[in-house]
Automatic annotation (TrEMBL):
<dbReference type="InterPro" id="IPR011707">
    <property type="entry name" value="Cu-oxidase-like_N"/>
</dbReference>
<dbReference type="GO" id="GO:0005507">
    <property type="term" value="F:copper ion binding"/>
</dbReference>
<feature type="domain" description="Plastocyanin-like">
    <location>
        <begin position="379"/>
        <end position="501"/>
    </location>
</feature>
<dbReference type="InterPro" id="IPR008972">
    <property type="entry name" value="Cupredoxin"/>
</dbReference>
<dbReference type="GO" id="GO:0016491">
    <property type="term" value="F:oxidoreductase activity"/>
</dbReference>
<protein>
    <submittedName>
        <fullName>Spore coat protein A</fullName>
    </submittedName>
</protein>
<keyword id="KW-0946">Virion</keyword>
<dbReference type="InterPro" id="IPR045087">
    <property type="entry name" value="Cu-oxidase_fam"/>
</dbReference>
<dbReference type="Pfam" id="PF07731">
    <property type="entry name" value="Cu-oxidase_2"/>
</dbReference>
<dbReference type="Pfam" id="PF07732">
    <property type="entry name" value="Cu-oxidase_3"/>
</dbReference>
<dbReference type="InterPro" id="IPR011706">
    <property type="entry name" value="Cu-oxidase_C"/>
</dbReference>
<feature type="domain" description="Plastocyanin-like">
    <location>
        <begin position="121"/>
        <end position="187"/>
    </location>
</feature>
<keyword id="KW-0167">Capsid protein</keyword>
Amino acid sequence: MAIAQAMPGMKRLQAPQSALTPLRTLALAPFVDALPLPEIVRNTGLPVTLTMREIRAKVHRDVPATRMWSYGPAAMAPLVETRARQPLTIRWVNNLPAKHFLPIDYSLHGSGHDVPEVRAAVHLHGAKTASKDDGYPEDWFVPGQSRTCHYPMDQEATALWFHDHAMGINRLNTYAGLFGMLLVRDEVEDALQLPSGAYEVPLILYDRDFLADGELLYDVSGDPAKPWIPEFSADGILVNGKIRPYLEVEPRIYRFRVVNVANSRFFQLSLSDGQAFWQIGCDQGLLAAPVAQHSVVLGCAERADLLVDFSGLAGKTTHLRTGAFDIVQFRVKGQAAVAHKPVPRVLRSIARTPESEAVTTRTITLHDYKDDVDRSMVMLLNRKHWHEPTTEFPKLHTAEIWEFVNLTDDTHPMHLHLVRFQILDRRPFDTTAYLMEKTLRFTGQAEAPAAHEMGWKDVVQCPPGLVTRIIVRFEGYAGRYLYHCHILEHEANDMMRPFEVVV
Ligand SMILES: [Cu+2]
């Protein structure tokens, strides 16, 4: 959603799902838990098994253990690490209970009383994957079943992440805890000798609300027949499974692999001491060169690869913050055990795809239909629901321009499966004229993407009142895929559409 959301503490109108007292997460003592690091599972060529299960884990020293779902025994799923072009096989096992513990909306598409309550589909976000292994929303499987997926990993070094994508329910499954990170390595990255081992730290960011007894709280609309809410952001900010943890660091450069796995929240990241950091990568890998940043906004599902230099802060503390709210405390030790290498000047060559290569331009309009008290009822792409026949048939090995015409008052992080793309520009237009006359009247100049958006992307922030254009080459596989807003509440109702790559 909006950047304003980066600051917790907003009042919400929805009633809690239970009469129990909500936990005042903002009143919890900050920085009392060490930042957990996920177990690393390396791709050896043998199949990796990741099992979904219900666990209990502590999100904070002073909060009783919370029931959640995970792809492993801890709140943080194992971090899978693989080389590029080293085929990876993952057997996803569904050992979840048969009953869901979060408020299902049976009125949503594919989520009726005619299907089992607990369904799972796993999507490896950002992976170039055959359609059958991509975790199609309707290809869900139930407790007691499993799916074996093959990932050729024919792509460049980056941070991907896996999460649930089951039709009508993935916002609740992800909220319950079904997400994890996957790192792809390659020789270009190796040659840069970036901070590694203990000096490379995954930061998985999300937000949750809790009841006083520690149980997860997910808001509902107040209408028992339609509990869906258009957006959900919570006061409790978690990093790697803990509310506002701390990390001891040495006075040297660290590499942080950041992913926003929140349902709706955007994070506006900066350091509390005002220091700049280097952004060296975005969704689909390294940028051409490091970009000095004082702050970066991560929409849902976006990734940032950051280098932070603590060497001027020996013996002090600083914080990673979102907006003005500190979410991780860095406690800088007096001395570094291993000196760091300087930040490379050049990272990876990235050829811009020329617009002339596009064989067509597709216009995708973004709509938010509201009731008479301005509450969202349904959100659509090109005024179409998920279940309507496919309308986009890009041809394999061709490039297309997709322009997202945002007619809503929200920023939508749009994601396409299978592909990586480049952002061309964003341009303001007259939304009223568009709605009345269906003509695109621009009201200003097109703006090129910021330097940190000039790398390969798989999510693009589409702000309100702008036409956001991307250029995308459909490579890899023919077959059915999908594109959707990555605000999970929007995606569920019904900002998600299929596309089919044809030969
Ligand atoms: Cu959206």
